[in-house]
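Predict structure. Chain length: 649.
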Amino acid sequence: MEKRQRIEELVELLNKANYAYEQENREIMSNFEYDALYDELKALEEETGFVMAQSPTVNAGYEVLSELPKERHVAPMLSLDKTKDVDALADFLGEKEGMLSWKMDGLTNVITYNNGELVKALTRGNGEIGENITNNAKVYKNIPLKIPYKGELVLRGESIITYSEFDRINAEIEDVTAKYKNPRNLCSGSVRQLNNKITAERNVLFYVYSLISVGEDVQFATRSEQLEWIKSLGFTCVEQKKVTKATIHDAVAYFAGQVAKNDFPSDGLVLCFDDIEYSKSLGRTAKFPRDSIAFKWKDETAKTKLVEIEWSASRTGLINPVAIFEPVELEGTTVSRASIHNVSIMESLELGIGDEIEVYKANMIIPQIAVNHTKSGTATPPCECPVCGRETRISTEGDVKVLYCMNPDCLAKKIKSFSLFVSRDAMNMEGLSEATMEKWINEGFLKEPADLFKLARHKDAIVNMEGFGEKSYENLTASIDKARTTTAERLLYSIGIPNIGVATAKLITKAFDADMEKIRHATVEELTEINGIGDVMARGYVDYFAKEENQQQLDHILVEIRLEKAENTTEATLEGKTFVVTGSVFQFKNRNELKAYIEERGGKVAGSVSKNTDYLINNDNMSSSSKNKTAKELGIPIITEEEFLAMVQ
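Prediction complete.
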């Protein structure tokens, strides 16, 4: 009876986790924990012979809940059986040849072409019925809208967002609580937008991994032949290797060695038989196809001792726990710290100083705590902020507990705010470090951003401070004076409105013609009319300017500066051209400056190479980078900076 009760508990818990992951784009447990509970459930079911109707071991998914229209798949999308044992992969193959590929961590799509045009794209949904996302798929960065094959073609693949694109988007979100947790969640939300302009801005990529159906005029004996043909049509395919029982161990080792180098998220590998007719003959179970199996990385874990929980304060007041433990070797590197993310996770792990814990790298990359063997539960959130010493308070957001510093004058908040204000993309005050500004805040010189322009009143004190002198003071004030002339978009970004990054600040200032009065009094309705700005972002923006203190601080800044209207008188010589920039640059300060140069002349800069790319700019055209490789495969010219400049002139 106890085992049956445990089965019921596991089914409920795993279904809840599945629903959160598939339908709400959030995670209530780690992959490590989910796999462990799933394996426990499967073992109990096999031992007792008792399987519930709603068990995730026999059900493929959940009903879709969204405003997107729903359609039935032409063929059901089943889950894959899985293993963490390479020998099991070898046994699965037997004497047959197989294809081993990445199991990409994104959102599965099924796309259909008719008469050479993309006509339909569906999400996985519950495996039987998916959401129609055709409008969004048409703006994926590397998907062909037209292909030379005119018959009906149905393909299955994965839409993903790269780590670099994920970092770029998160970097533009100032509110820590609003940042995306991982690329998979960001991709899922991007692909299922009702406004495909948002999807287009997220640089979603699509990788084909299998052919579902094709006209009778095209015949293949093997999957490898299928994929070569699909590539010839202009699609990007998941990297695959042909394997046998004798070579499977080396192939898995190869993929394992690539994980840390990849710019895309993956959570394992997929092995399928290469012979198509043999695959068809195997059939399927209620949940799994018999011709394929997933390989999950066998997480390398290490036991260690928790020595400290560090509480890291941010500009928004959020204070996150970080586990500090005795150093251990994992996946070839030494690790000694791991983010715990929030108070809820710390409590669920029942952490305490001195506990014996096991740590691992999620997907072989991100350090995480897997298990706490001691479970002393003695760790508690601090009642005082680690920076200012004032009161902290736990807030429950959804079903997650987070810790905040309640002091509006907290030094952490002020330092981070001032640091943003002086940063390169904001007011661009060179030479002003956080350490320098911390000293000035402690001395009472800085209470709000406008005070940076009034440092002359404290000249004597600054010159005589340790580490300063007349020359240092002159250099710093020269940099500050230079920043007195700026643009509305820099100013808007610099004041630190939650969720308003560099790109969004540009959108808003352009929409209001750089008129600061219109910008500061914009309504939710006006903001949401701007492509790329949603209701949550707009309301946060309006709430910021609704506070008298924020309006006053902006008034004080405006007294000290002069706003120039950013005028673009440059001839649009690059209009209609799409560039990708990679590698080191020498003619420009950095890649951002080169990107701005291209955009000023009407060109577009993409994050990845696709059929739509006109030129890849790379000073090392012999590089073995993935961008170079893709450009060569697609016949896209690879040019140096000098060749680019010669072309522009």
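Summary: The chain has five domains: 2-48, 75-295, 302-405, 413-564, 578-648.
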